[in-house]
Structure formats: C-alpha cells, structure tokens
Input
Amino acid sequence: MPRPCSPRGRQPVPRQQLNTPRKPRQPERWMPPKIWTGKTVYILGGGWSLSMTPVDQLRDRGPVLGCNVAFIDWPWIDAVYIGDQPCLLRLLPDLERWHSAAPGKLIMSKHPGSTPTAPWIHHFTHSQHLAGIDTRPGQICGNRSTGGGAINVAVQLGAARIVLLGYDMCANQHVQDGEPHRCNYHDRHLPRSRYARPQDMPSPAQTKQQRRRHAPPPLPATRGADRFATFSRPFVEIAAALQKLRVSVYTCTEGTSALTTFPRVTFAEALEMV
Output
C-alpha cells in the first residue's frame, strides 16, 4: 500500500501525523507585576485556627493573599491563589461572581495544562523544582500544598515580609453536626463530591435524582497525619531559599501549630508589621 502524500504530492506525510487530534491551545505564561514590592504580605492558609483569628482586622493593613476559598469568607482580600486543580474547577462560578464584583482582584493558579479555565485567571508555570522558591518570572514551586505555593506567589509579587496565618499543619479536633471536619477550615464551603473535569460537572438541566446517580465518590471526611507531614516537608527548603532572598517570614497561628520552621508572632505583633 503506497504511503499517503501531502496535498501537493511532493513530500510524504508521516504516518503518526495522520488523524492526530489538534492539541488544545495552552494559556500564555503570566508575568506577575511587582505590585507588593517592599510590603508585608499576609497569607491566609487553610487551618482551623482561622476560626479563632480576627482576620477582618487585617483589612487595609497590607496586601492579603488567600488560599483556595478564603475569598468566600473574606471577600475584601486582595488576591487568591488556588493550587488544587479540582478545587479550581469547582470554584469557577464563585470566582466569576467575585471577579465581577471586584475586577481589580488577582486570581491566580498553577498552569492548568489542557484544562479550560477563564481568561481572568492568571496561571503560573510549575517549576521543575518540587520545593523551594523559584524567582524566575511566572514560575513557582508547588511545595506540595497550596499554602506552600502561596509563599512563592507572594515572593513573585515582590513581598519583603510574609506573615502566615492558618498554617496549622495538623488535624483539627472540632466536631460539628456529628461529623469530624476535614483537614482544612475552608473545606466546609466545598461540595461533598469531587469533579475532576468540567464535563463531569452536573448540568443545570439535570434533576436532583440524576445528579445523585452520577455523582463521583464523596471526599474523605478526614485525612491522616501523613498528609500533614507531606505538607510540612518542603518548608525547610522554603526557609533556606527565603533566607538567601532576605525575605522575612513569620508564623502567626492561634492555638497549636506544627509548623516550627519560622519565628512565631502574636496577632497583635503581626498587625504592626506594616
């Protein structure tokens, strides 16, 4: 059987290029502006200690960067970083409403690959290094958690000092409605089912019975201590990289925190770091 040729009949078309679907267009790399140069940046993690922290007192004190769904509890924050791709897809409707109400807010995430998102979401390219701080424009280290990646995001935006709130790095002991909560304080906003792809999300035309029938398995109610050990491991390399960059980082977590890498300050002391 003769090999197929190009339309002009001159050069043969490689067989592996026949009937190959076109790759989706990748989002362009975002070059973050240094809008927080020389400033103290407050980062809201996902620990349950946030329920005991008067976060509203940080308003107008300095840039506040929230992780995942922090913008739902505190819509006045300046920026949000979502490092979990399934979480980003589940929150797209809420993010769109938040963006419409305040177009100047920054919404950032890691590079989504072929996953379609919105044009107002700025995507960082994932660094080849798993842990640490990447100073190349538009690239961040994932650091095995959204909270760890958010520190690199703050550095990319020019932060000179960083205060971490809600970085518990340990499971909470709170029980509500007869069921233990998940590891993150913000998880109470997320639905019980995980939709890994946009096509898996239920259509508005579907009935409640159809949604229950085709819903993915529910998220686990609790996560083991090994998950928090994974979250904590990259902070040694993060601290070493920040020391070279002369960026000061402090932990301001009410109650018990397993993160001992950085110096601890009280909330009153954190308010004065402007």
